[in-house]
Structures are given as structure tokens and as C-alpha cells.
Amino acid sequence: MVNKFYPETFLKEPEPTIGGVNISYLGEKYGTPLYILDKKTLVIQAQKYINSWKTYYKNEYKVLFAVKALPVLEVIRIFHNLGLGILVSTGGELYISRAAGVNPQSIYFHGNAKTLKELEYAINENIAGIIIDNFDEFEKIKYLVNKKNTRTNVLVRIIPNIEVKTHTSIRTGQTDTKFGLPIVQAYDLIKKILQEKNLNFKGIHSHIGSQIFDITAYVKLAEVLSEVYKDLKDSTKVQEMSIGGGLGVAYTSEDNPPEVEDLAKEVSAKFKETVGHSFTIICEPGRSLVGRAGITLYRIESRKELPNVRKYVAVDGGMSDNIRPSLYGAKYSALVISKDQNHVTTYSIAGKHCESGDILIKDFIDSWPKVGDYLITFTTGAYNFSMFTWYNATLRPAIVLVDNGEDKLIVKRDSYEDLLRGQI
Ligand code: LLP
Description:
By secondary structure, the protein is an alpha/beta fold. The chain has two domains: 151 residues, Lyase, Ornithine Decarboxylase, Chain A, domain 1; 252 residues, TIM Barrel. Strands 3, 13, 14, 15, 16, 17, 18, 19 and 20 form a nine-stranded mixed beta sheet that branches. Strands 4-5-6-7-8-10-11-12 form an eight-stranded parallel beta barrel, surrounded by six helices. It binds ligand LLP. Ligand LLP binds next to helix 10.
């Protein structure tokens, strides 16, 4: 059976390959740890979003890649060429997106503590929309556009009061959150925006959380947004509404993420029933665009057997290249590339970092590997590279893109000299 967490082109037999390239060969050529990205999965996921909205939503739609999931030039270029816009959350993400050649009119900027400098940068770049999170940000933007006597497009982020089932660190739509404003306060903010000649109010933004499996949460969100639309109808035209990102992916065979198509279908149906497709719909996927496209290749460096306690297999990476197990208790699936498939046993896969919590997978079952064998972890395309930490002065791994039997280096591995960058 093909696992839900395999990249589109991944084949286990006779030897593991991805994008038509032998995975052990990639380990020899580029070294480990190595992030490997399957271009076909990236393209297929982006097309799913585009085609689903095209089918079900009878007005304009915008799919924005939430670049925080994987801020890599080549990945941004692939998505932008397919027609996706970009959602940034910092000046740094804006800089990377512009360096990738993204048209500023396809870029939106959200975030709860944007600095004056970041806002000035976004205004100077003339991006498609700044998503205002709070009153202080409004004052900063007002100051900047009046000083420059220039106009800028803004949206307002609301708190929709929807609590989703996901890790508490990545829930954002509930009443108590640092993101956005309660709806009544958002209305006050919109009133203020409408009085400003240099601010063009475009619409409403929302985001309920990440790694969400339940489409009904989005249907509820569509209901809330419909009410907001009706409330604002008399005072202003809402041109755009964003439902945020957050669709989940499968990390293990127990995970059952919904189809992208169902998100578009259900949300479009709800809006049709309430206010019609009277505005441009925006969605902002990150994880569901890039998560399954990525795998990480490690080399096994040591093994140990604590009698009657546990067996450990340690790899040459860990919490530096994938902080999610230690940060959220996130679960991953893996595969050992070993010549000896006979001796199957249970062990924990440990990282190399100086922390006991640096365990990538607890109670993993596979063949007992040898030192020098390779190990693959799956679904590492989202929030692994972007959350890299250089704890223990670790070198950031390279990223290789594979497609149609070819491999291409798209991010170089750090060198020891890189560790000294900026140090005096
Ligand atoms: N839109 C907004 C406003 C967001 O804050 C986010 C993610 C997205 C879209 C994209 O969400 P996605 O489709 O990727 O779920 N580091 C965490 C995830 C944090 C998500 C932050 N916001 C993790 O590793 O699970």
C-alpha cells in the first residue's frame, strides 16, 4: 500500500527512490542530513488548490503560499509561476519573496507585531495588502502613508471565536489569542480606516490554526465571515475575504487529512447559501503545499541497547533540522535503508543534540540498522528548514530538489565559516 505521507514520486522498492533518483545516491553526493524535495508533489498540491477554487467558487480566488512553511527561493518561484501569491509575516519573508521575483501585487503581509520599519518596507514595495492586526499597527501605517502621501491597501484580521482541535501552540481562532481583534473592535478599526484618504480598505482576514483535519471548522468560519460581510454591507464594500491556511497533512498512517477539494467545495457552498460569491476569496496554505513534498535523509551514527530498558539509534541530525517532535510532541514516520531487512525490532530514533528531549521518533519499528545506513523521515517539507536552530553550532543542511530523474541543489549546506558570520 502507498502511504499517505509518501511524496508523489517516492518508491520504496527495489531501492528507495524519489523523483526517479536513488536516495542513497543523494546521500553520497550531497552528504547528510539532507532535505530532499519532490517537485511533482509541490506542483500537484498547488494545482489542487487552484483547480478546486476554480471549480467551486464562482468569483475570483487567490491562493497565497504561506512562505513561513518553507522560505526558499526556488520553491517560491515554482509556486509563483503556477499563479500563486505569497503571504509573508515579516520583513525577512518579504525580502526573500521579492528576491525570488514575486510581483509585489501578489504579496500580503500579516503579523501581530509589525515594526515601523517592516511596514515602511511593505508600503514602499507597494504590496497587495497589509493585514492590520491591531490599533497600534493602524496608527503606524497611518503615520507612514500620510508622511509619504501614498495610498496602501489594508485588510483587518478578526478573531472568529472558533476553537479547532490541534496543538495549543498552533491554534489561533479562539477567543483568547494574540492574533487579530474581536469582531466588535474590528468594526471600530474599519470605521477609522474608512476615514483615512490614504488607506484603501479591501477586506477581512482570518486564520483559525494549523494542522486542521476538520473541514466543518472552515464551514463555521465561512458562517462567521458571512455575518461580518452582512454587518459591513451598508458602510463599505468588502472586496476580499481570507479564510487563512491550516489544512493538515498526514505524518503517520493514523492521520486522515481532508482533501483540498473538500475545503473549497464546502466553503464555497456555505458562502453561496449565505451571502453569495460576492467577493474575492483568499486562502493561505503553507503545510499542505509543501509538507508531503519533503523528506529528510540522515546517516546512522551510533546504536545502543540498554538492557530491559530501550534500544536507541542515533542519527547525524535531530532537533536542529526538525524541532517539531521536541516542540510539539509531533509524530513522524521513517524508513531505514538497510541491506539487512531480517532483524526487525523496536527502538527510538535519537538526534545528536545535547538534550535528552532530542528524540525524533519514540518506539519506532523497523530493521535494526548498521552504522552508516541511511534513515528517511517523511513529511518534513513544512516547518523543518524554516524552524532550523543552530543549537550546538550545527550546520544547516542542504536542500535538493528532485524531478524526472534529475537532482538540483537549491540551498547549500552551511560550512564552519558560516557559523562565524556576524561574530566579532
Ligand atoms: N495564514 C496565517 C495567518 C498563518 O499564521 C499561517 C501559519 C498560515 C496561513 C499557514 O498555515 P498552514 O497552512 O501552514 O497550517 N510552526 C508550526 C506551524 C505554525 C503555523 C503558523 N501560521 C508547526 O510546525 O506546526
